[in-house]
């Protein structure tokens, strides 16, 4: 996608062919080589384990990235969290979307059913009160919605209790007009960031047991769970190799952030999955007010710090020490930095960082190769 007709610096931070030095900062950049290797690695992992791959678009919120994952990364479709995200992705050309979350508001449910006229749309439920509203909206718009029963498998977030409560909810779904019971979602979100591989495996083993038990009871009741889905970047290898799950939902693997770099592989050697940092906040030094200190232009508004401060990529002598709204303080003990130097920051948490930007500036061999809109930026409803 080329935007040569748009004034650079007004609508987009760079032009195709620009060098790194030309990019207006702060900017969200993708190292295309690392990104493509990450996509290929997860495709290989899923293929080896024999499970479907449905990546989570809540990470990138980009139709361009989603379409690349489908065309090149083995993805059967895409996950998202909000109806507005699903709408934006479908407008961008995605044709198979799972809203891997609960949708309870009748207006949102109506939008979801209307969207199913343009794409295959699935959604999760954990409450029988929602089933009737989903059914009515689907019938009104002349569609059939695939519905997955979400179970709480340890995160204590959304989800009905596993076992018989999940079976009863599945029966309600299966009996509702214009709905199709598709299976179960068993996603343990908080386990993704358990750094210790032994503790992480223990948490996921419990989740796998809950999913296995629930699936068995569903089959006993004559309700085949065609889809058993869950897992994220941090645990994809565990659920994927379990023999229980047949679909996985990793998201952050394409970019990887500083927090995920602390999640050790199941074998305890290296980062989970061998994935690389591919997403960076490109920042410039805007002030060098004192020896040992530099100030960059990426502050709190440029990256999310809920999972910790960013790190300076491949510059271990530099430390991102603190942030205010528009400023980042860099400790530079050797006084190596000067005005307008560029640094790549690895964000602490990639998902909310991506939601702060309008564009991905995609770079290869030191030059801008593509500009991808953050299609679903701000789509929170």
Characteristic terms for this protein:
single chain; alpha/beta; TIM Barrel; nine-stranded mixed beta sheet; eight-stranded parallel beta sheet; 23% strand
Concise structural overview:
Its cofactor is Mg(2+); pyridoxal 5'-phosphate. The protein has 381 residues and is of the alpha/beta class.
Structure explained in plain terms:
By secondary structure, this protein is of the alpha/beta class. The protein has two domains: about 20-30 and about 275-375, D-serine dehydratase-like domain (Lyase, Ornithine Decarboxylase, Chain A, domain 1), CATH 2.40.37.20; about 35-255, Alpha-Beta Barrel (TIM Barrel). It has nine helices and 17 strands. The chain has helices spanning about 30-50, 65-70, 85-90, 105-115, 130-140, 165-175, 195-220, 235-240, 350-355, and strands spanning about 25-30, 50-55, 80, 95-100, 120-125, 145-150, 180-185, 225-230, 245-250, 280-290, 295, 310, 320-325, 330, 340-345, 360-365, 365-375. Strands 1, 10, 11, 12, 13, 14, 15, 16 and 17 form a nine-stranded mixed beta sheet that branches. A hairpin with a 2-residue loop joins strand 10 (about 280-290) and strand 11 (about 295). Helix 3 packs parallel to helix 4 (about 105-115) and helix 4 (about 105-115) crosses helix 5. The longest helix is centred in the middle third of the chain and has 24 residues, at about 195-220. The radius of gyration is 22 Å and the shape is globular.
Topology (elements, then pairings):
Blueprint: E1 27-31, H1 32-49, E2 52-53, H2 63-72, E3 78-80, H3 83-91, E4 96-102, H4 106-115, E5 120-125, H5 128-141, E6 145-150, H6 164-175, E7 179-185, H7 197-220, E8 227-230, H8 236-240, E9 247-248, E10 279-290, E11 293-296, E12 311-312, E13 319-323, E14 328-331, E15 342-346, H9 350-354, E16 359-364, E17 367-373
Parallel strand pairs: 1-16, 2-9, 3-4, 4-5, 5-6, 6-7, 7-8, 8-9
Antiparallel strand pairs: 1-10, 10-11, 10-15, 11-14, 12-15, 13-14, 16-17
Helix pairs in contact: 3-4, 4-5
């Amino acid at each position: 996608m080329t935007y040569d007709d748009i004034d650079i610096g007004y609508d987009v931070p760079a032009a195709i062919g620009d060098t790194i030095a030309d990019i207006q900062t702060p900017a969200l950049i993708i190292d295309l080589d690392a990104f493509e290797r990450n996509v290929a690695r997860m495709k290989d992992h899923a293929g080896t384990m024999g499970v479907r791959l449905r990546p989570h678009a809540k990470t990138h919120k980009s139709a361009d990235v989603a379409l690349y994952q489908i065309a090149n990364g083995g993805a059967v479709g895409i996950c998202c969290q909000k109806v507005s995200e699903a709408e934006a992705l479908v407008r961008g050309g995605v044709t198979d979307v799972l809203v891997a979350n609960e949708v309870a508001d009748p207006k949102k449910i109506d939008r979801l059913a209307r969207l199913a006229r343009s794409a295959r749309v699935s959604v999760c439920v954990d409450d029988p009160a929602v089933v009737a509203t989903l059914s009515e909206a689907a019938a009104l718009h002349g569609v059939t919605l695939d519905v997955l029963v979400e179970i709480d498998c340890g995160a204590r977030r959304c989800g009905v209790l596993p076992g018989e409560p999940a079976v009863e909810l599945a029966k309600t779904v299966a009996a509702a007009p214009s709905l199709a019971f598709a299976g179960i979602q068993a996603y343990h979100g908080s386990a993704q960031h358990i750094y210790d591989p032994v503790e992480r495996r223990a948490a996921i083993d419990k989740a796998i047991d809950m999913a296995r038990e629930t699936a068995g009871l569903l089959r006993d009741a004559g309700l085949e769970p065609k889809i058993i889905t869950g897992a994220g970047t941090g645990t994809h290898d565990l659920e994927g190799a379990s023999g229980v799950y047949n679909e996985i939902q990793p998201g952050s693997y394409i970019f990887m952030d500083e927090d995920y770099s602390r999640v050790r592989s199941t074998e305890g050697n290296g980062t989970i999955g061998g994935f690389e940092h591919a997403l960076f906040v490109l920042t410039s030094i805007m002030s060098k007010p004192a020896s040992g200190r530099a100030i960059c232009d990426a502050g709190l508004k440029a990256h999310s710090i809920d999972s910790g401060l960013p790190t300076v990529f491949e510059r271990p002598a530099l430390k991102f020490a603190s942030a205010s709204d528009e400023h980042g303080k860099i400790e530079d003990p050797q006084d190596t930095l000067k005005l307008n130097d560029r640094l790549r920051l690895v964000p602490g948490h990639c998902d909310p960082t991506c939601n702060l930007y309008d564009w991905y500036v995609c770079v290869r061999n030191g030059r801008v190769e593509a500009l991808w809109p953050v299609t679903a930026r701000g789509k929170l409803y």
